[in-house]
Amino acid sequence: MGKTNFDIIIGIDPDVDRNGFAVVDMHNRQLVEVLALTFPDLLDTLHDISTGDLYGNYSCRVIVEAGWLNQGNWHVGYRDSKAVAAAKGNNAGRNHEVGRKIIEMCQHWDVEHRAVKPLNKMWQGKDRKITARELNAVTGWKARTNQEMRDAALLAWTWAGLPIRISKSTSL
Fold it and tell me: Does residue 169 have a pLDDT over 50?
């Protein structure tokens, strides 16, 4: 993280249904795109990046959240039944495989990328994830977002080396 030599930083939060996708333009230091893309649409976008059809001659780095890099992936609650625990494990595994396939396609198309551990959860939302208001306070992004989109935006913002400061006067 920190200073980057890339023109564009792209954050991706892999998900089975819709992947969070966010773009930070390093020239104006702004979040310029936050989307939720299906897997086929995401692959089309990555292919367009690889051919220069999407961002032309701008240099890009794709940052993919890689939850499988964590030591453990325990999402099981104390009172969860075996069936609930199995379902949670299955869902996490499916999301991890989507992330691995995204990385595989980045390699295939020579798209500069990095698989990274999920960021620390320190926000006010459910499971300490970032809320829409917090994302707005950090990045200035005002459009509606879902959790995958916010996670991708925060990932791109952080890896772009941009500040995460919320003043005490900001009411969240």
Answer: no
